[in-house]
Amino acid sequence: MPSGFLNDILKYDHAVWYRINVLWQSRFMDLVAPVLREPKTWIPLYLFLAIFMPWKYKRKGLYWCLAFIITFALSDYTSASIIKPLVQRVRPCNDAGLRHTIHLVVDCGSGYSFPSTHATNHFALAFFMIMSLHRQYKWVWLPAFLWAFTVAYAQVYVGVHYPLDVSCGALLGVLIGTFTGRFFREKVGLAKK
After folding, report:
1. What are the Cα distances from residue 118, in Å, to 76, 156, 184?
2. Residues in Cβ contact with 11 at an 8 Å cutoff, skipping those fewer than 6 apart
3. HSE toward the beta carbon, residue 85, CA cutoff 13 A
4. How far apart are CA 179 and CA 137, in angstroms?
5. 131-179: per-residue pLDDT in tens?
6. In this structure, is residue 180 part of a structural domain?
7. Which of 3, 38, 52, 126 is deepest in the core (most CB within 10 A)?
8. The total number of structural domains that make up the chain
9. What is the residue range of 150's domain?
């Protein structure tokens, strides 16, 4: 990839980050964004799925829950343990050049920025749900996508990721979730036979 093209992408990435993190800040989002990105926020959803799927689909529902967990493990490991150490992009909140600009809403933490593991995981789980459940619940795609999107957006808003981090994390998650969701649908499926 030519360095000029890469520089253009990074300039655009920074410009979009600046707009979301600095120009579009609000008291409301300062309260909401940290909650959206907090894993504990989504425990009720996970508990609902862990109860509903086995209740509704019996053994296949248990397999679905196992595939959901495997999807998470695969996306988390790929993002955090393989790609981040290879790329080693500094988080915006750890960039000394942005110290006086950034609107940091949460603790920055350590670790690298690219790709966003939050975005990877949530898009992987969302697309696993879409691929494995859309035949039974045609409406599932919209809430699943919005769930993943709001978590990813919150990562940029609070100052811990750039838009490119969450976009590429989302793309990785879509690929993983689509693969595991289709695999589950073809090998196990939820349709009654």
Report:
1. 8, 11, 23
2. none
3. 5
4. 19
5. 999 989 999 999 999 999 999 999 999 999 999 999 999 999 999 999 9
6. yes
7. 126
8. 1
9. 3-187
